[in-house]
Amino acid sequence: MGLPINSALKSLPVYQPGRPIEEVARELGLPAAEIIKLASNENPLGPSPAALAALKRLLPQLHLYPDGNAFYLKNRLAEKLGLEPSNLIFGNGSNEIIEFLGHALLQPGAEAIVSQYCFAVYPIVAHLFGAKLKVVPAKNFGHDLGAMLAAVTAQTRLMFVANPNNPTGTMAPKEELMRLVNELPEQVLLVMDEAYIEFVEEPADLLPLIRRGDRGNLILMRTFSKIFGLAGLRVGYGIAHPESIAALEKIRQPFNINSAAQTAALAALDDHEHLARTRSNNRLGIEFLQNAFRQLGLEFVPSRANFVLVRVGDGQAVFQKLQKEGIIVRPMGSYQLADWVRISIGTPEENARCIAALKRILR
Q1: Is the whole-model pTM more than 0.85?
Q2: For 97-130, what is each residue's pLDDT tens digit?
């Protein structure tokens, strides 16, 4: 083509999501109803029932534009978190928040610091804006926060830390995390990705720092995709100092959170029964999978999230064989973990079926 396409796109990696059930069904000629997906860390119990009921009431109003400022959702979420609405910004999933940060802080010559085995979208956004990416080697599959702090230079603008981390499920020690927060230079924004924080029983609580307003270089990211079961509606949010939020609001597109997403998220926030059931199912599922891996003699990374990373030999081959049995997991070759697959926690029945199939394949 003769179009002057942005040169950064030539080497930009493409994010590969977990395969949809319908696609695998078409490809392998399997009934879609018999396929289970344990690839994308979704809630196996489905969406919040309260959210589904609210969506049904909304349907006759879909001819109207959504609230461009998500007033009711923003105010209710601020109330639950003990924050001001000015501390919050919503994105079409947390991925859009990450892109906002790229627009605001990255350009050629700037640096972004990530850990080895980090979420794939961080490097993609850094490359998209022409920034230099510094990858710090992992420590026991998790973040080496001391080494990441030491990697900061005058050009560093963003540091990404997922806690728990995806795809490894590791959790940074609280004392190391607080040292990083306290010692990071002011010109570096610490992006704490807390997509899986609701699965952790006693997480490090950074919200008081936001409430006090004494950490202008900190943003927390959370999502309704995981524990709330609303991945298909794409609602993520950022929590930060009002001045940082105001800057990001200049980048946010109008109506980026649609009416259905706002309505469902608002209802799901107070569906405490659904949250409790999800946490219980996840806790039992983690225990079941990790015990099964021990019995099979498989190395795995103890997880604090809703998935387990397990070493199976040839990860791509195991992934393909499991697909033929109607089970979709996530191969980890794109994360430089070619011997591993990531298995999301399913229902007890789905977990048992996955382990039985894995036993047959490895035998």
Answers
A1: yes
A2: 999 999 999 999 999 999 999 999 999 999 999 9
Phi, psi angles (nearest 5°) of residue 330 = -120, 115
CATH superfamily for 16-46+272-362 is Aspartate Aminotransferase, domain 1 (3.90.1150.10)
Report the topology of domain 49-269.
Aspartate Aminotransferase; domain 2 (3.40.640)
Looking at residue 231, its pLDDT comes to 96
Q: What is the DSSP letter of 305?
A: S
pLDDT value, residue 1: 62
Distance CA 326, CA 129 (A): 39
Q: Which amino acid is at 96?
A: E
The number of C-alpha atoms within 13 Å of 346 and in the hemisphere containing its C-beta is: 18
Question: Please, where are the H alpha helices in the chain?
Answer: 21-28, 49-58, 71-81, 94-105, 121-128, 145-150, 174-183, 207-212, 242-249, 259-269, 272-296, 315-324, 348-362
Could you tell me which residues come within 8 angstroms of residue 187 by beta carbon, excluding any fewer than 6 positions away? 154, 156, 157, 217
User: What are the φ and ψ backbone dihedral angles of 155, each rounded to 5 degrees?
Assistant: -95, -5
Farthest-apart Cα atoms in the chain, separation:
58
CA-based angle 93:95:97, to the nearest 5? 85
Q: Which of 257, 253, 215, 254 is nearest to 100 (CA)?
A: 253
Single-letter residue type at 308: V
Residue by residue, DSSP assigns 234-283 as --EEEEE-HHHHHHHHTTSPTT-S-HHHHHHHHHHHT-HHHHHHHHHHHH
SS3 327: strand
* β-strand partners of 18: none
Parse the chain into domains and list their residue ranges: 16-46+272-362, 49-269
Q: In one letter, which amino acid is 123?
A: P
Q: How far apart are CA 318 and CA 73, in angstroms?
A: 42
Residue pair 136/144 in contact by the 8 Å Cβ criterion: yes
Q: How far apart are the first and last CA of the chain?
A: 51
SS3 per-residue string spanning 87-110: HEEEECCHHHHHHHHHHHHCCCCC
